[in-house]
Specification:
The protein has 186 residues and is α/β, with parallel strands linked by helices. It is built from 8 helices and 5 strands. It has helices spanning 13-24, 31-41, 44-55, 61-72, 90-103, 117-131, 138-162, 174-185; strands at residues 2-6, 27-30, 81-84, 109-114, 165-169. The protein has a 5-stranded parallel β-sheet with strand order 2-3-1-4-5, with helices on both faces. The structure holds adenosine-5'-diphosphate. The site of adenosine-5'-diphosphate has 18 residues, from helix 2 and helix 3.
Length: 186
């Protein structure tokens, strides 16, 4: 199974992708995690991405695509994958289609986790207290939500047009939402 997860910051993509990885043995590919690893390792890529991420803006398409291509070449991806945090704008959606066609691993399902803005704000405030991520502050969060509305939301139409989009309510317990996702994948 090859899956793209869509949803706003705080919608639970990371949590649900980890659970699916565990239960279905898929590769969980989070571009946010890959970028944070580069920042932590102090690589050139990480240095280029650090401030952009802290502001809540998007890292350049070329940087993220290069990083993703390298990750897609790893052997675990052959069993199927969950993409979390990519594509994040229309250009990335087009680039992803080209990459996956070339690799012969097209997307089977796009799953959109739907959560109201008020709930997102509460969840991210909570995560800020627990994890202290550099971009979980009120100003960056506003930017991330705006970027999501303006740049990422159009990606939903990209998959709706292909007929493989499934909308899943992202409210309830982690297990409830997981069960809904499993139904949406069936
Ligand atoms: P969230 O969706 O909860 O805000 P992520 O961990 O998915 O968090 O991403 C954190 C940050 O990493 C983004 O705000 C952005 O700066 C950068 N990032 C992640 N994925 C991409 C991407 N596909 N393209 C550009 N930037 C990205």
């Amino acid at each position: 199974m090859r899956i793209v997860f869509l949803g706003a910051p705080g919608s639970g993509k990371g949590t649900q992708a980890s659970l699916l990885k565990e239960r279905l043995g898929l590769a969980h590919i989070s571009t946010g995690d890959l970028l944070r690893a580069q920042v932590a390792a102090g690589t050139e890529l990480g240095r280029a991405a650090k401030e952009v991420m802290a502001r809540g803006e998007l890292v350049s398409d070329a940087i993220v695509l290069g990083m993703l291509e390298a990750r897609m070449a790893e052997p675990d991806v052959a069993n199927g994958y969950i993409l979390d945090g990519y594509p994040r704008n229309s250009a990335q959606a087009v680039a992803l289609d080209a990459l996956l066609d070339r690799l012969g691993m097209p997307v089977d399902r796009a799953v959109l986790l739907e959560v109201e803005d008020e709930v997102l704000l509460v969840r991210i405030a909570e995560r800020a207290r627990k994890e202290g991520r550099a971009d979980d502050n009120p100003e960056s969060l506003r930017t991330r939500l705006t970027v999501y509305q303006e740049q990422t939301a159009p990606v939903i139409e990209h998959y709706a047009g292909k007929g493989n989009l499934r909308r899943v309510p992202g409210i309830g317990t982690v297990e409830d939402i997981h069960a809904r996702i499993r139904d949406a994948l069936a």
